[in-house]
Design goal:
With 315 residues, this protein is α+β, with helices and mostly antiparallel strands. The chain has 2 domains: 138 residues, Aminopeptidase (3-Layer(aba) Sandwich); 165 residues, 3-Layer(aba) Sandwich (Aminopeptidase), CATH 3.40.630.30. It is 32% helix and 32% strand. It has 9 helices and 13 strands. The chain has a 13-stranded mixed β-sheet with strand order 7-8-9-10-11-6-12-5-4-3-2-1-13, sandwiched between helices. It starts with 9 loop residues before the first strand and ends with a strand. The structure holds coenzyme A. Coenzyme A (COA) binds next to strand 4, helix 3, strand 5 and helix 4.
């Protein structure tokens, strides 16, 4: 297809009114994950067109350093005309204002081979992989339930630890746990959690309380027999280590799978970074198949540049 010629000035801004619908069409991922905190679009005004959209959110590297996580898509007719580069430049300026140390983009290199070439041209490098596994729910339960019971018998799981439905928790504290250890903005995550507890399957979202404080969280979706673990976090003090067999994750996963099984789950999908040894081991032990492999690309932000504000025209 011949690329459409770009008329006049392109502006980067937050979407309003009908632009929000165009934005959701360009980024359907926004519906699946609620942690994207901000959205920007590249538009022309005469004629009024949304050329591209991007979402971003603060995130955390495995070593705890803050980055800006980005989702970016240019509408097909407007590709290879510098729109992606301009939008990225704008996102970079906003990330610097928020003191992010790097930009991170996760994408499927097979579905979107152009993205790899674009990111290379923009100075990004591949730093990790994001793997999605699928396993038989029963097989996962057969592994996790006896493990949980054994950890309980051994006294590894403190008596103060319990898993409760999200709706029964202090959502502000749970949002803080998410922001501090997984990313997102407090307002964005809290809105998402409030939305989740109004849904008919809100009880699929579970929180680990230890001494009545939220220390772990699993957000799950169960549809047509498939359970998808959308977000999973355990605070560092409760994560597996040389001194901790990772009981918090086992307890949370076992509880969530118990709910899922009750509502007819046959298969379960869960994801992790390629550097997360514990989850990789779980996938191997449960004979899970790898159903998606995405690449994580990063560009470090080293120099300070003059700041851009939302609504800045770029031509
Ligand atoms: C990747 C993407 C954002 C690039 O946007 P774009 O506006 O077309 O990119 P630009 O015009 O700014 O390209 C900048 C440079 O990147 C490289 N590049 C971009 N697309 C390329 C392609 N298809 N083939 C080879 N190089 C490419 C080129 O070096 C290009 O410079 P040049 O045109 O002067 O040669 C766009 O193709 C897209 O939206 N793809 C889908 C992405 C997606 O699925 N995102 C979701 C996960 S983040």
């Amino acid at each position: 297809m011949e690329p459409a010629t770009l008329p006049g000035t392109v502006q980067v801004k937050a979407p309003v009114g009908a632009e929000q619908r165009a934005c959701k069409m360009l980024l359907p991922e926004l519906e699946q994950a609620g942690h994207w905190s901000d959205v920007r679009i590249a538009v022309t005004h005469a004629p009024a067109r949304v050329l591209a959209a991007a979402a971003f959110a603060p995130g955390l590297d495995p070593d705890g350093i803050r980055h800006s996580s980005i989702l970016l898509r240019v509408a097909k007719p407007f590709r290879r005309q510098g729109i992606g580069s301009r939008l990225l430049e704008h996102l970079e300026a906003e990330a610097r204002q928020r003191n992010a140390a790097s930009l991170r983009i996760t994408f499927d290199p097979f579905a979107e081979p152009a993205t790899g070439l674009f990111l290379k041209a923009q100075g990004f490098e591949c730093v990790d992989r994001f793997l999605t596994f699928e396993s038989n729910t029963q097989q996962l339960m057969d592994y996790l339930f006896p493990l949980r019971d054994w950890l309980k018998e051994r006294g590894d799981i403190p008596t103060s630890a319990r898993v409760v439905p999200l709706i029964e928790t202090d959502l502000e504290k749970v949002a803080r746990l998410h922001v501090d250890h997984l990313g997102g903005t407090f307002a964005g995550v809290l809105t998402h959690l409030k939305h989740l507890i109004t849904g008919p399957s809100h009880f699929h979202n579970a929180v680990l309380l230890a001494h009545n404080e939220p220390e772990g969280l699993i957000l799950c979706e169960n549809q047509n027999g498939l359970t998808q673990v959308q977000s999973r976090v355990v605070s560092p003090a409760y994560q597996g280590s040389a001194f901790n067999a990772g009981w918090a994750n086992v307890l949370l996963m076992a509880e969530v799978l118990g709910y899922a099984h009750l509502v007819g789950s046959h298969r379960c999908r869960f994801s992790c970074l390629g550097s997360n040894g514990h989850t990789l081991k779980l996938a191997t032990r449960c004979k899970a198949e790898t159903v998606a492999t995405q690449e994580v690309h990063r560009r470090t932000l080293t120099q300070l540049v003059s700041s851009l504000t939302v609504g800045t025209a770029i031509s």
